[in-house]
Amino acid sequence: MSTLPIAAVLTLVLVALVLWIINGFIPIPTAIKKILNVVMGLIVVGVALWLINTYVPMASVIKAILNIVVVLATCVGVLQALGLWEPVVQLWHRIVNRFRKHRVDAQQHRVEEAEHRAEDAEHRAEDANRRAQEANRQPDKSEHRIIDPNSDANREAPQETTAARH
Asked: Among 32, 74, 31, which Cα is nearest to 49's?
């Protein structure tokens, strides 16, 4: 039988004893106690996770899920112990709310663009209908232009004679 599991168990017992002494009998400032408790807790979690991964037979997928859950729970515990969990949660909420606001703004922008495109299409259709009506409309007699035979604009250029061309 290997001596590693015995050493790991002895390590856990030693950590528990040190935590009991630090928290119960030695007068240490609260901030330092917090840090020592976090370090000792990390040692306990690490040794326990190593023992489970090494000596408990289980599928590798389940082992990976267990490792992820333990690491995440340990991170949350450390953040809570150091008083940083609430700021992290607030930061997360600000990020999520900013993303939601951006998504809502983008949706509103797309709706407004669609409305503008619909209005533009409507205006183009109205213009096309108006032009078609104007093209199909018969001109009134009052709209005929009166041609002045003496006007310079209505005179034809004199035609050259054949003799002048040769």
From this structure: 74
